[in-house]
Amino acid sequence: MKMLRWLNGLACLGISLTASATSITPEVVASGLQNPWALSFIDQNQMLVTERAGRLRVVSTDGQVGEPIKGLPPIQAGRQGGLLDIITDQDFKNNRRLYFCYTAPEGDDNNQANNSTALASAVLSADNRQLDDVRVIFRQKPTYAGGFHFGCRLVQQADGTLLLGMGDRFHLSQQAQVLDQHIGKVVRLNPDGSVPSDNPFVSQVGVAPEIWSYGHRNIQGAVIAADGTLWMHEHGPQGGDELNRIKPGVNYGWPVITYGVNYGGSTIGAGLTAAPGMAQPAIHWTPSIAPSGMAQITSDQYGPEWRGNFLVGSLKFQHLVRLTLDGNQVSSQSVELPNLGQRVRDVRQGPDGLIYILTDRTDGQLIRLQPT
Ligand SMILES: [Ca+2]
Predict the structure, then answer these.
(1) Which of 33, 99, 136, 321 gives 312 a disulfide partner, CB atoms 3.0 to 4.6 angstroms apart?
(2) Centroid of ligand 1 to alpha carbon of 272 (angstroms)
(3) Tally of domains within the chain
(4) What's the mean per-residue pLDDT of the chain?
């Protein structure tokens, strides 16, 4: 029934559902991960995996799960918050540096009610057991006493700059349109946390210089495509989940325009779906799929039909959505792993060209997608 409604929702968008010649089989690599949130490979056979409760482990492609890595900063885990995304520096092989975002208590006191999304960098010890030189390089301002909408997806561009997508803290949605702080924003930072001189608002008085784009609700997936374009998806309220191509200085509209409605069905604001000066999404989903995690397939492992496609995890429908892009538009989408039966939290391509996903439950799994 749910699926039927979802398919009807897609039909309303006029986007065709394609049948796929490729089929994939999920292969469980590791189990027993507690609400794993993100993975990032550190070599051919090993990856870092975050657990939302505040642990970081090395997991290998043959299924070995390492002990928690020491040296994480104070993390306020609870509700949607905790240790969230992680990526390795583009020069990780030489500098062992990584970046992670998480829910940080205000100050360093973990008893503080106020918290915010923070971004830290650290160096992973040669034996993979310890984080050294841990530096908190950014904190979302203002802090807030809440447990929802931390966003927290992170990518590094070829120029080394970091892009962090955040959320609106659920109760602060109006501030996504206010530019003197970081609620509902994407920010761009140098690896040391300083502000790049070519950020779109650096010369504007009264605007937070870290801002790259704004008007976001809760960003849960980010990819830099092979052509260098940046894409992020975000949760809508009831309906109206979006995938956007992210460009500097652009207003993505939340909460002024949205294809969703309030929980319960009332309209949001004036009930607008479009307005001057506000970007339209590349695709939107009603009912919500609750996207989480996203990867572009750049390998040939799944054949030419899938090469270049995006794979988006769905928390709600417990499957993957495969998107074919045509420039700035999505030309088709299809459901993959319809019988997975687990909430998909993260989706990444490994060095072997295969896709790895994490599932969100207390006995979460690392799953490799084998082409068949
Ligand atoms: Ca939008």
Answers:
(1) 321
(2) 11
(3) 2
(4) 94
